[in-house]
Write a structure and sequence with these properties.
homodimer; Arc Repressor Mutant, subunit A; SH3 type barrels; 3 domains; 6-stranded antiparallel sheet; 8 helices; 8 strands; globular; DNA-binding
Chain lengths: ~220, ~220
DNA sequence: TGGCTCCTTTTGGTTAGTCAAAAGTTTACT
DNA sequence: AGTAAACTTTTGACTAACCAAAAGGAGCCA
């Protein structure tokens, strides 16, 4: 049996590098998992023994094919649960993450399949992140940072990279919801700002903030 | 934080004696939890130190007020989850128990509240067992064993005590579903049988089987 | 009262996961 | 090249939960 601790290590490795190309530093992994570096090292060693990661001491760690596969399924469970909590149980975008964090380790594949069906086989979760398929494929979209858009572009909001509650509230208050279609009115590199129109309302954003919002061409 | 192991010990103590009146034997508790008696003893000792149970060495163990309270809430979570899996996700009566066994330890009160709402504040789960309220009250019904009913009685099926899959299938096939109203046609103590009519169909049951079915006067 | 059986408790050992602090590497700068 | 800073690994120790097997009551029957 695979413990939830192991699932968390694998999941975070995946989230830090979805393609599993880079060597992730022990300390970085330790930080996101809120454990000491020493704890991470020893867990990495046992993961390596099980063939779930490849460990080059002092250089870093990387998921193996097998490890990545497990991780992807944890992420699938997490995102389906999140979407389920929001769409079916009516919970808030902000409060579902921690809940899903727990549930992802105990819900069976059967339950996930049924939730998936009830949700209509969604491809992306409430944060705009892709939901891996049961086979482990990750649906790709060609996203672009809002900060790279040009005047006149018509795009739809696909993902908000900043999980900060205040930022999410600001986005929500200004109609910058997932799927909302917006038009780029002005772009001023000198003033470091971009002006967009969403649902008739004009909003001015700094380019740094715009860099946290990903959009899809429509 | 209270571990799921502790929750399981408390829950099983509650299920073995819902009123928490008797002293439960260590060995009995160990058996339902599938642990050795020694393991049970040592956990009982730590539970006693936390004030969750009262332990009289060599005589038995009993939930305290506080322990029973926690146990009742675990049971509430379990039963609401079960009902949710059956009614909302369309799972089978038989397959939800193990799933709920896992989920009961991780779902938050918020999620339970929302499920409860979605289900219409049910008072009993798919097995006919009562669902404790958020305050810990246990809705009582005055149930009677089908084997004690007399000719002419009109009753509704409230609970099936036998969890055996074959028995459940037999019951289902003969229209003996939760809530179904039936009439007692004949009762023959010599032949040890009882004849009932449900939805026009007559079914003959041995009194032993009838003793596993509980009914409510209508 | 002794002895027998059944059950409970104790004892000693294991595993997974953690931390704190010591020891060892790498890198980067002079 | 030499050294300090930054990071990683090792070491030793802890906790929760478990098991197997030895030791310790309790009740019963002669």
């Amino acid at each position: 049996m695979i413990s939830s601790t192991v699932e968390n290590y694998l999941k975070e490795l995946f989230l830090l590098d979805p393609r599993s190309e880079k060597q992730i530093a022990t300390g970085e992994l330790a930080k996101v998992l809120c454990v000491t570096p020493g704890s991470a090292t020893s867990m990495i060693k046992t993961l390596a023994q099980s063939g779930l990661v490849e460990h080059r001491p002092h250089y870093g760690v990387k998921l193996t094919e097998q490890g990545r596969n497990l991780a992807v399924h944890v992420v699938r469970r997490h995102r389906i649960v999140e979407l389920f909590l929001v769409n079916i149980l009516g919970m808030d975008w902000g409060e579902v993450h921690d809940e899903a964090e727990q549930l992802e380790h105990v819900v069976s594949d059967d339950v996930i399949t049924r939730m998936d069906e009830l949700l209509g086989h969604p491809t992306h979760d409430p944060h705009g992140d892709p939901i891996p398929t049961p086979e482990g494929e990750i649906p790709e979209r060609s996203l672009q940072l809002l900060s790279f858009c040009n005047e006149g572009d018509n795009v739809a909001i696909a993902r908000i990279g900043n999980q900060d509650a205040a930022f999410l509230k600001f986005a929500e208050d200004n109609g910058l919801l997932l799927g909302a279609s917006i038009e780029i009115k002005h772009r001023n590199d000198i003033a470091d700002s971009i002006t967009i129109q969403s649902q008739g309302k004009e909003v001015v954003l700094g380019l740094a903030a715009a860099g946290r919002i990903e959009v899809e061409d429509v």
